[in-house]
Amino acid sequence: EVQLVESGGALVQPGGSLTVSCAASGFRFSDLTMHWVRQASGKGLEWVGRIRDKGYNYATEYGASVSGRFFISRDDSKNMAYLHMNSLEVEDTAIYFCVRENWLLDYWGQGTLVTVSS
Amino acid sequence: EIVLTQSPGTLSLSPGERATLSCRASQSVRSNYLAWYQQKPGQAPRLLIYGVSSRATGIPDRFSGSGSGTDFTLTISRLEPEDFAVYYCHQYGSPFTFGPGTKVDIK
Q1: Would you call A97 and B33 a contact, using CB atoms and an 8 Å cutoff?
Q2: Using omega within 30 degrees of 0 as the cis cutoff, is the peptide bond preceding B8 cis?
Q3: Which of A63, A117, B6, B102 would suit a FRET pair with A55, their CA atoms being 20 to 30 Å apart?
Q4: A54 CA to chain B: closest CA distance, Å?
Q5: Which chain B residues contact residue A103 at CB under 8 A?
Q6: pLDDT tens digits for A60-114?
Q7: Do A35 and B92 touch (CB under 8 A)?
């Protein structure tokens, strides 16, 4: 069974940094691209970014609103993906979902809540 | 970046009725990379449709997708109580984008 479990969400002050994690199981993690998608309370889905697999040299891409502030990494030996968030803004408050790409975004974790507030 | 627009914002219907949801793209969606997701409160989105019209595993056949180019439709032939939710269209060219969602609520 495919499982994606996010962790690490927290309350952070504006301008701060935070890393959230995604633990994957039930599939060959190293073969697939992993994404992060976020959702502010009562709002729609916003694509944050993705990290491709080793075959694509772990290339990363990011959405415009987070580019230059957020970075995605992965550790295939641990079946883990990470979202490193810097210079956090109040507008970054959201649930952050880890999502598997198997040609498309097919499995989602339950998300972890990041709150940016003073 | 392809911008997706969904209409209507809210659709109020009764169980048993037919629901028709629209998704329009600002430019042609590459290779029909268009999907639909269902999201209920407190849950992650669930994949319903991919490649415009292919149902994901376990999705009942009352859900169907159609369209091409810039105009796409999700149809729920007869609404069941569990179908009342928010539906998002999504194009998975790069960069990935989502529509703002259509809420289907009980009339």
Answers
A1: no
A2: yes
A3: A63
A4: 19
A5: 50
A6: 999 999 999 999 999 999 999 999 999 999 999 999 999 999 988 999 999 999 9
A7: no
